[in-house]
Design brief:
heterodimer; A: 112 residues; mainly beta; globular; B: 127 residues; four-stranded antiparallel sheet
Chain lengths: 112, 127
């Protein structure tokens, strides 16, 4: 199984400031077709997870452009250009290169 | 409105069975693959199982393989998870999740994420 790790596990943020979360896999998520099979999901407090990013850097429909994803191979990053209060929650990366699909442990983002 | 509504959770003793259901509405059910993803209390997400649009492909996490069975019924727009020989460690909130494509997994296929999540149904396995 592909092991996913995230850092930090907790991230206090200031509204209006940028934030960044790292996700790493123990195997490359880059398929021979050129796509990185890495998703990002956000679980807001008391809610179900929601899709933010797929293919490492493609924003899902309706996701604000302050969210951006980058990275390739085994190292990936989710960036929030200017954090808003509604961005608090737990962020998960997930690999979809192999089954079983596996999630990272999550990064809890909350306001300072 | 696109919606997934899970049901069937509850308190069950170890070794017993439970069947979860997920009712889909607001979209063409047969066009999509589905997954079950669970979340133990206070913990992270774990993929449990997936099924293709036509049930031609199914997959399971090692932790549930041989005990859980995923299925779907297009006539009822419903997804199911039959859970047998339940263990204490199966205690979790179980989410029904729609994939953006027709296959839960095929190596190299275009994957646009899992875009619709239900609210979940709680399973508690305890004596």
């Amino acid at each position: 199984d592909i092991l996913m790790t995230q850092s930090p596990l907790s991230l206090p943020v200031t509204p209006g400031e940028p934030a960044s979360i790292s996700c790493r896999s123990n195997q490359s998520l880059l398929h021979s077709n050129g796509y990185n099979y890495l998703d990002w999901y956000l679980q807001k407090p008391g809610q179900s997870p929601q899709l933010l990013i797929y293919f490492s850097s493609s924003r899902a429909s309706g996701v604000p452009d302050r969210f951006s994803g980058s990275g390739s191979g085994t190292d990936f990053t989710l960036k929030i250009s200017r954090v808003e209060a509604e961005d608090v929650g737990v962020y998960y990366c997930m690999q979809a290169l192999q089954t079983p699909l596996t999630f990272g442990p999550g990064t809890k983002v909350d306001m300072k | 409105e696109v919606q997934l509504v899970e049901s069937g959770g509850g308190l069950v003793q170890p070794g017993r069975s439970l069947r979860l259901s997920c009712a889909a509405s607001g979209f063409t059910f047969d066009d999509y693959a589905f997954h079950w993803v669970r979340q133990p209390p206070g913990k992270g997400l774990e993929w449990v199982s997936g099924i293709d649009w036509n049930s031609g492909g199914v997959g399971y996490a090692d932790s549930v393989k041989g005990r859980f069975t995923i299925s779907r019924d297009g006539a009822k727009n419903s997804l199911y998870l039959q859970m047998n020989r339940l263990r204490v460690e199966d205690t979790a909130l179980y989410y029904c999740v729609r994939d953006t494509g027709p296959y839960y997994f095929i190596s190299g296929i275009v994957h646009y994420g899992m875009d619709v999540w239900g609210q979940g149904t709680t399973v508690i396995v305890s004596s």
